[in-house]
Amino acid sequence: MDEMIDDVLSAVGPRLRALRLTRETTLASLSEATGISVSTLSRLESGQRRPNLELLLPLAKAHQVPLDELVGAPSTGDPRVHLRPIVKKRMTIIPLTRRPGGVQAYKHILHAGGPEQPDPQVHEGYEWLYVLNGNLRMVLGERDLILPAGEAAEFDTRVPHWFGRADTQAVEFLSLFGRQGERMHVRAKPAGR
To answer: What is the pLDDT of residues 109-129, one digit of tens each?
Structure first.
């Protein structure tokens, strides 16, 4: 068992170096992002320092990858994502991503029910959403919009916003949320191809 652990830990350094180089990040900028000294990062990458959780957690966050990916943990064999839904009074929110930082994906289910009073909120970030089923009422600043299934919207979350049912039927929609300045990029194939 000790030999297997040593093999896994010795592979972490080259994996960290490859991640950093792929992302075109310097040791200095990674040090600034994680609070880990340049010399420690260099020793980790070269295998001269044994990785521990205290070092790996900030590195996983900085590289925006799960800790499993840093250590090369074997897959569990179950491809399903088992994330816990968040249940609130009028909705269920299901996280669809597991990685720390970066753009996060969620499925929202607004349960069937009576009318709701909008209560717009603001926070840092940028959001994109797509309505799967039902009619979503979206209050965005001074605008009061109805988005039917198949429609999408994107907005800066510093603008007061609120989501609810447009009628008494349930609504399902997907949302992608990123930090301020982080926007989704949609690329279409050029015409004629």
So the answer is: 999 988 889 999 998 888 999
